[in-house]
Amino acid sequence: MIRRAGVALTLVALLAAAAAGLFRSAVPAGRADPVAAVAAGLRCPACQGESLVDSRSPIAVSMRQVIADQTAQGRSPDEIRRWFVARYGEEVLAQPPARGPGLLLWVVPALALLGAGAAAARTMRARRPARVSPADRPTRRRSRRPVWWLAAAGLVALVVAVAVAADRLAPPTVTPRTDPTAVALKLAYDLEGQQRYDAAAQMYREALRDRPDDGVRLRLAFALLRAADAAGAEQAAGQVLDHAPESPDGLLVLGLAQRITRPTVASATLRRFLAVAPAHPAAPEIRRLLGS
Amino acid sequence: MLGDLGTAGLVAGLLAAPLAALLWLRVALAGAPARPARLASVGALLAAVTACAVLEAALLGHDFSVRFVAENGGRHVPLYYAVTSLWSAMDGSLLLWLLVLAGYGALFARGRPDRLRACAMVVISVVTTFFFALSTFAANPFRAVHPVPPDGPGPNPLLQEHAAMGVHPPLLYAGYLGMVVPFALALAAPLAGPDGRDWLRLARPWALVAWTTLTAGIVLGAWWSYAVLGWGGYWAWDPVENASLLPWLTTTALLHTSLGGGRGRERWNSVLACAGFLLVLLGTFLTRSGAVASVHAFTESPLGPLLLGFVLLAVLATTVLTGPRQPPPARPGVPLWSRPTAVLVNTVLLVTVAAVVLIGTVLPLIAEPVTGTRASVGPGYYHRTAVPLAVVVLLLAGLPPALRVRDRAGVLRRLALPGAAALATVAAVGLLSRPGAAALTAFGAAAFVLTGLLTAPGVPTTAGLRRSRRRAATLGHAGLALLAVGVAASATYARVDERTLRVGETIRVGDVAARLESVQRAAPGGRMTVRARLVVSSGGHSHLAAPVLRYDPARDMAVTVPAIDAGTRRDVYLTLLAVAADGGSASVRLAVNPLVGLIWAGGAVGTAAGLLALSDTVRARRVRRPHPTGRRVPVAAGASP
Fold it and tell me: Does the distance separating the beta carbons of A111 and B308 come in below 8 Å?
């Protein structure tokens, strides 16, 4: 009697302690960081199958920064996720939403569990010899066969679905559909909007690697100028002018950068800018600068 | 010259394999002598050996007129990696695949040629024929190259960093293709008449061979990933990894349903035996056709439609052959508190985990044509689905010792101590640290399993273990528990930091500090190598670590080889991410991963358990069932490693 009570008491104490431990650790210390929690649900567009938490690519770093900023502004994880989906499309989600084909992620395992469970339950039941009830036999067999054929048809349908999908994919696409360059550019615009020019310049550089485009190079030059990297801005603008010597924006950034690096030649460059594009929105400001 | 010889080998195999199929069919239908059929199967093996040997000779002799060597060979490649380049790209690895497949065929052909074996050999020969045709027509590595290049790029640099490359793929293939024997036997059973009733007894040792090699292959692959890829992890739920996990799950289930002769679970056995090899084929299609983007999938190829057609054909053949069957014989029901119940629950759960992994892997393929976007299924999905199921499977692994008694009260009495240990573990770990619900339950379940195994009567002593009939199961379940502890601990308690250090600066994670001493650059043979030297100190000890960043211009690929200081308690894992142009600073990632060693230890214990089970099975049969003809039991001949 006393022994049994002791056992019961120990059991209750252990259960209580285990429940307390489980409850306390339900929120793991490592994932308490809300930024990491949101980042874990988003995919790095420039990598293959890595989430934003794990990826080390510059795009992922910037996207994590965006998450951190929005979290600091008091946005909820759902709002941040929606913001990313609205901007970059659903491909940015690490896991497809639970609708449409994404629903299969939950339906198929559930069906497998139910189907296998039902089969197991049937295996557990006793089976009487079939000849004991000859009247039963045909009905039982008839009832079993359609289930089997249905399951088999489902299996074949799955393979056919894969076949159709594979056919659509030919030639196989190795690059992810989300264009990393486009994401990098969007991120760069966003960062510029937040006046974080250093990070924006980094994104433009990233985009330039895949798409050496003068428009992007000009934005890079502007961003570098605002990030107080005049030498970098001068270099970028110089590259634009190598391709298009009459580019007004190129001359404008070059001139503004030279005002810091080489003041002696700056006014000549800016005058050339005014000569090429007298109606440029920045022209009055430049005239004022040169006049003063 | 070598190229022609290799193609000749493939063509010889393409002739020998269908010939073997026909001759075995004659054995099955007309009871013809098996000797010619056996010779044809051996002929297919010889053809595969020839093809592999010729390609190895071309790789080692730098014969760049052979396409595969021009694409994957190189004069700068060290001897060991020149040998392993055979399986470093798709066309060559298909030859290894053929070699293993034909090897299984020739081994299995050696036993008593009853109708069952003959029918199964027909199936194996047909599969072999298909892969010979695939290799000859769609992926012939021996095609000539004009003009002959002076040198090649060498194999993928990632595959030249770790000795595991030499054994991981062959083991994996041995695991995959070993499943062809249970598959063929399950298909052959309904066709073979009275012989067919014995198929499971014949199939089990082969399933054990396949399971053991696949387990070793998967764990070695994880180890390679940890030691070479430099991101600090070992498993990423990548399609290629999933493709290896799927057949492992169903074969694990098969090894359990086939216990005790598999009585009462006839249907489960045949479905699981077929599922294993069908999933191998499906995985091959997924990873070899470029259909699924993956870090280590081989790139695009024309094999997709062919492989897919074969998968479809195999599924259809399986459905038709094993589908409608005689209703099984009468039997009593299964008592609730018994081993068969646990086996069934375990099977249901493993099948569900397999369904989770399968749908997660193929969903991107299904979703893309429907929604137009390329969905991706990240680790988060598997953490929410497969991981909880796996914890329950782990709990079940603790039951066998308790289920040796038959009555409910006895079972509960035997479960009391392991249960208390599990609850105490959950309480202690959960109150001292906060590992999260998944890891915490995994710790509890592992404590449950290990306590249950250690307190089972007769087991703790070596003599008891030697006598135990279920010693392989005990060992295997212990390995699983160790692996679970390693996975859960390294996933929850790992600490990482990443910083750009100037020379002389220090990065700290917990009590581990690493000071950057120097950054050295070298460019031997055009491969840029940057090596950082850091002094790592923790708890009064210090050692030198040298993570490497290597750039291979021939393939435009950077490899970050981490410096790992592996300890029993924890690994210190240093990766060099980037270096400044002037060599004055470097970006370094420092991770402290606790108990990672348990993962490899668990895998090794699991592999050992597989070998033990195999030797026990073979020995038990030699002792118990001397064959009527006086020869050795056929299975023993084939299965001894």
Answer: no
Alpha carbons A112 and A104: distance in angstroms, whole number: 12
Instruction: Report CB contact under 8 Å: A165, B327.
Output: no
Q: Which CA distances in Å does B221 have to B158, B211, B230, B234, B383? A: 13, 15, 14, 8, 20
- Range with the largest mean pLDDT of A23-37, A179-193, B246-260, B366-380: B246-260
Do A157 and A108 touch, CB atoms closer than 8 A? no
CATH number of A31-98+158-177: 1.10.8.640
* ipTM surpassing 0.90: no
Looking at the domain covering A212-291, what would its CATH class be?
Answer: mainly alpha
List C-alpha distances in Å: B468 to A133, B203, B607, B615, B627.
Answer: 43, 23, 19, 14, 26
Minimum distance, in Å, between the CA of residue B553 and any CA atom of chain A: 17
User: Which pair of structure tokens corresponds to residue B622?
Assistant: 């030699």
Beta carbons of A226 and A240 less than 8 angstroms apart? no
Q: How far is B112 from chain A (nearest CA, A)?
A: 33
Do the Cβ atoms of B431 and A29 come within 8 Å? Answer: no
Instruction: Decide: B347 and B393 in contact? Cβ < 8 Å.
Output: no
How many angstroms away from the CA of B576 is the closest CA of chain A? 12
Question: Above 50 in pLDDT, residue A169?
Answer: no
Q: Record the tokens describing residue A54, joined without a space.
A: 């794990």
Q: Nearest Cβ partner of B378 from A7, A49, A120?
A: A49
Under 8 Å between Cβ of B101 and B169: no
Instruction: Tell me how close the Cα of B248 comes to any Cα of chain A, in angstroms.
Output: 17
Choose the mutation target among B310, B334, B365 for the interface with A, i.e. most A CBs under 10 Å.
Answer: B365
CB neighbours of residue A242 within 10 Å: 10
Instruction: Using an 8 Å CB-CB cutoff, list chain A residues near B421.
Output: none
Quick one: angle between helices A214-226 and A197-210, nearest 10?
A: 160
Mention every residue, 6+ apart, whose C-beta is less than 8 A from residue B308.
A159, A162, A163, A166, B285, B289
In this predicted structure, what is the pLDDT of residue B496? 85
Domain ranges across chain A? 31-98+158-177, 212-291
- Answer whether B377 sits within 8 Å of A95, measured CB to CB: yes
Residue B309, CA distances (Å) to B242, B282, B285, B305 in order: 21, 10, 10, 6
